Amino acid sequence: MKKQTKGSVFFQFFINSFIITSIILSIILGTTALAYTKLYIQPEELSTNIAAISTQVIPSGSFSTTSDLEDINKTVAILGTDAQGYRTDVILIANYNSQTEQIDLISIPRDTRVEWTQSQKNAMRKQNGFTMSVTKINEMSSYTGIENVDDYALSYIENLLGINIDNYVIVSLTAFREIVDAIGGVYIDVPIDMHYYDPIQGLEIDLKAGPQLLDGVKAEQFVRYRSMPEGDVDRIKMQQLFLESFADKILSPSIFFQLPQLVQILFSSVKTDITVTEAIQYIIDFGIDFDLSNLNFHTIPGKGQYIGYVSYFIPAMSEIEEFSKDIFFEHID
After folding, report:
1. How many domains does the chain have?
2. What's the confidence (pLDDT) of residue 289?
3. Sequence-ordered list of residues with C-beta below 8 angstroms from that of 56, at least 6 positions apart, any chain
4. In angstroms, rounded to a whole number, what is the distance separating the alpha carbons of residues 239 and 299?
5. Which CATH number goes with the domain that contains 116?
6. DSSP 3-state assignment of 295?
């Protein structure tokens, strides 16, 4: 993918590409590393030790990283897969603006209606012997393989928002549960009673309203619940509520003692094209301070709509350009 705009890069890749899981789960581990460096390590110590760190890449596809230190924006796609690992049920675009020092997390509803391009249809026909014309965005990877997400779902998002996505992180539901458990759970004020049962997915949600500590299983139930008036849009609001509490917890000093377990989860369950060395170097080059007030949540404009018997999220194309400009191109006069 091409780079977006020129300037200096972000120091905060980890928060960008690791605070999230099922919804998020990518930013999670990176944030953990950030919290560790912020609380316990001086930048010069990292500089001394970085040469000894392996350039091993966290399991990934065939993408390569060519970070341009002149870029103002760093944009990372954060994808949370379903229980089978086929569909991208959580899609977040994390953008760090090095001039404004803002981190924006943009949610793309999984039900977003996508019209496949001719080249995408041709590629799928060649791969599978059949093709699709219209699907939800989360279904694209189930037809073409999660390893090809760059050519399908991410390509659609780039065209929709008029941006270039630099890197990606893919996180499983299993990793999400394990990470929440590893940090001792997350406190959430659950806004309503949440009850849902789907034997096909093997999903049972049973949460009472009120403040409570959610473990990994309960946290998964919270972020997956969608039996609300606005369906997927309301579910995204719950995910964003969870992320705020999660970010506060992951940046606390107590996380230091969970680092070994978190790193193990990172290497076994998270796929990305960012090398460990590169991620640490970002922190060294661009600082280790982070203010949670600079973390902003957004959802692309649009509305839910039935077309035939299928429920879609339809982006409001008349509003997308201004929405994207305000977030990604704020530094351009």
Report:
1. 1
2. 56
3. 275, 276
4. 11
5. 3.40.630.190
6. strand
Distance CA 172, CA 67 (A): 26
Closest CA to 120 of 88, 77, 162, 151: 151
Which residues partner with 118 through β-bridges? none
Neighbouring residues of 145: CB distance < 8 A, sequence distance ≥ 6 = 127
Tell me what pLDDT residue 283 has. 54
Q: Alpha helix (H) ranges present in the chain? A: 13-18, 26-40, 43-49, 118-128, 140-144, 153-161, 173-182, 216-224, 232-250, 259-269, 276-286, 317-328
User: Is 55 part of a structural domain of the chain?
Assistant: yes
Provide the CA 185 distance to its chain's centre, in angstroms. 19
Residue 329 lies in a domain: no
Spatial separation of the C-alpha atoms in residues 184 and 74, rounded to whole Å: 31
**CA terminus-to-terminus distance, the chain:** 24
Classify residue 328: in a domain, yes or no.
no
Alpha-carbon distance 314 to 179, whole Å? 33
b/e code 26-36 from CB counts within 10 Å (16+ = b): bbbbbbbbbbb
Distance from C-alpha of 297 to C-alpha of 304, rounded to nearest angstrom = 19
Question: Is 87 a domain residue?
Answer: yes
Secondary structure of residue 152 in the 3-state scheme: coil
Task: Report mean pLDDT in 10-residue bins for the chain, 333 residues.
Answer: 39 37 40 46 45 38 36 84 86 86 90 96 95 96 93 96 90 87 93 90 89 95 86 85 86 75 76 69 51 85 93 95 90 58
| Max Cα–Cα distance, the chain, nearest Å | 61
- Print the domain residue range for 36: 13-184+221-323
> What's the pTM value of the predicted model, to 2 decimals?
0.74
